[in-house]
Amino acid sequence: MSCKIFTAVVILIFTSGCSIFKQVVYHPDINQGNYLTKADVAKIYIGMSKQEIAYILGTSMMKDPFGTDTWFYIFRRELNHEPIIQQTLTLTFNSSDILVQIDNKPTFYSYS
Predict the structure, then answer these.
(1) Mind listing the pLDDT tens digit for each residue in 73-87?
(2) Number of folded domains that form the chain
């Protein structure tokens, strides 16, 4: 009798896969990129210089590989057992290093 129960439990565990252990296994929180608050982004406006923006937001993690006229502030957060969150702020400058365009994309959620 106990052999049948043991066999049934083993078969149940193997057929259910690892999904039952997903919430039990620890996954560290992973933050990557430039963390920007809404208050910091609100301080940025068209007509500012690169130096002023670097003072407020810090230097960007990514710059345009074909020139220095576009800065990308990208923040990605992967919390334990929650969707991945990504925020992207793109700043474009003219040849005089003056901000001419702000593209603040909404927060993106990815379920993995």
Answers:
(1) 888 888 777 788 888
(2) 1
Q: If residue 55 lies in a helix (H) or strand (E), which one and from where to where?
A: helix 50-57
Mean of all residue pLDDT scores within the chain: 81
Residue 41: which of 23, 60, 26 has the closest Cα? 60
SS3 41: helix
Q: Which residues contact 90 (CB under 8 A, 6 or more apart)?
A: 70, 71, 72, 73, 101, 102, 103, 104, 105
CATH, residue 42 = 3.30.1450
CA distance 19 to 16: 7
17 has pLDDT over 90: no
Cα R_g (the chain), whole angstroms: 23
Could you tell me the pTM of the whole model? 0.68
Residues spanned by the domain of 53 = 26-110
Structure tokens at 112: 């993995």
